[in-house]
Write a sequence for this structure.
């Protein structure tokens, strides 16, 4: 998912975001099994594959990811017509092709979900990079954003950047000011809001989200997400199973790639101490950094540090921060765009190599 927005905007090819696990096997002696998991059975401490094979465990770390709340007329089937492109791969390429085939003077409509949602690929970076593509290739076109909330992360930085880079091309509508969706017809590409019908040439409908089916089938969910013990990320519902990434309820941490990575490190570290008879680290520190591109040479970021206590995750006052609102000569924005690429290179090397 990281940098899939750049693929949609034609800045990168799909191969740029593809990774395999060969190095984990070769360098780290990890047995990588490519198979679909049916469920994690906490009663028997076993992972059950769809093939029927059973793998037992002492401790299991799961990162089951997200699924969607199909509602208001949007379904898994018609997502193949109006893609969400939130799970990278086929949907990423589909949206990229639709954008490429859109007429100059067309309307790109994006429906941004309610909180919380997976990021990357963040909808506001996507808006920015689609605008970059349209400004470069189809400058008569416009973007309408129908938001299911009234504010979003780095909002001032984004909206100032949109005005500076794209003028009036982007029409962002908050939920209370015309953005709230009542129904959608993904085939006809018509979105009905509380105020009007919005017709799209390309419709990017991003549904509201929840933990994946695997998380629900494994008994790891409470409401839409998986409750965890913050200090270890062990499930509050299933002993010896640790839930990291988008599916976990780790607020105020966002459902970001960086969050998932740091959560994985904490879970692995604490498990290693438990299995070797040592006390866990208390409290462990967590962190998040999110870079967003508004064009290839314009980046912004937000960062935070957290303490994980027995019952909650707390932001550390004074740690982290956001990009400055003003950058008259564009030097910081250019540097942050470069940092975004460096972040991606470092994260993928850390995870896959």
């Amino acid at each position: 998912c990281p940098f899939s927005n750049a693929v949609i905007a034609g800045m990168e090819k799909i191969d740029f975001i593809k990774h395999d696990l060969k190095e984990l096997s070769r360098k780290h002696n990890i047995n990588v099994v490519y198979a679909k998991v049916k469920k994690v059975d906490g009663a028997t401490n076993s992972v059950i594959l769809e093939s029927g094979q059973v793998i037992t465990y002492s401790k299991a770390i799961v990162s089951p990811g997200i699924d969607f709340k199909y509602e208001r007329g949007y379904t898994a089937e018609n997502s193949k017509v109006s893609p969400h492109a939130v799970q990278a791969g086929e949907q990423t390429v589909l949206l990229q092709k639709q954008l490429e085939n859109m007429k100059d003077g067309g309307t790109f409509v994006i429906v941004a979900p309610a909180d919380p949602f997976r990021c990357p690929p963040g909808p506001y970076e996507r808006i920015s990079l689609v605008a970059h593509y349209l400004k470069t290739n189809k400058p008569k076109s416009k973007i309408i954003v129908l938001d299911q909330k009234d504010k979003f992360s780095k909002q001032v930085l984004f909206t100032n950047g949109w005005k500076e880079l794209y003028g009036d091309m982007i029409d962002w509508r908050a939920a209370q000011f015309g953005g709230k969706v009542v129904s959608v017809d993904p085939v006809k590409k018509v979105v009905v809001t509380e105020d009007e019908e919005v017709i799209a040439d390309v419709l990017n409908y991003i549904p509201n989200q929840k933990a994946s089916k695997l998380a629900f089938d494994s008994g790891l969910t409470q409401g839409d997400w998986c409750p965890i013990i913050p200090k270890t990320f062990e499930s509050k519902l299933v002993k010896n199973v640790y839930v990291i990434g988008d599916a976990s309820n780790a607020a105020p941490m966002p459902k970001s790639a960086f969050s998932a990575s740091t959560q994985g490190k904490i879970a692995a570290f604490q498990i290693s101490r438990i299995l070797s008879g040592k006390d866990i680290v208390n409290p462990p520190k967590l962190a998040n950094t999110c870079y967003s591109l508004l064009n290839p040479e314009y980046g912004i970021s937000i960062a935070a540090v957290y303490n994980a206590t027995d019952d909650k995750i707390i932001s550390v006052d004074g740690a982290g921060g956001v990009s400055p609102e003003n950058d008259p000569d564009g030097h910081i924005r250019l540097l942050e765009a470069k940092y975004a690429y460096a972040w991606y290179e470092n994260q993928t090397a850390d995870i896959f190599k």
The CA atoms of residues 3 and 341 lie 9 Å apart. The chain has eight helices and 21 strands. The first helix runs from residue 4 to 8.
